[in-house]
Amino acid sequence: QVQLVESGGGSVQSGGSLRLSCAATGITSSDYPCMAWFRQAPGKEREGVAAIDSDGNIYYEDSVKGRFIISRDTAKNKVYLQMNSLKVEDTAMYYCAADIPVPEEWLLLAPGYDNWGQGTQVTVSS
Q: How many CB atoms lie within 10 A of CB 73?
């Protein structure tokens, strides 16, 4: 039914930038108004990076505030993550997620989402 496909990952040097894209098919903004980006590094738990709730409010994990920007193009049914000033600790597989309206306290928690992309790798070197 719903498909989420991420793209834009790659290898960059510390301080560099990348823009991730997530293309959604089989859904509409009204179907799954909440969309988010998560990441998971080897041996680590999947953590929320940024999210947009059903009202268009934006939330960020503390470590990426001021560096990452999440945005949504409802006409194209896509969500983006602009990543600036990348750090080595940002290295992870990045996943796009979508769901029905999610309570604020769950927006950056993986259990709050049922629909996931397959991920795109981001590697940051010093």
A: 12
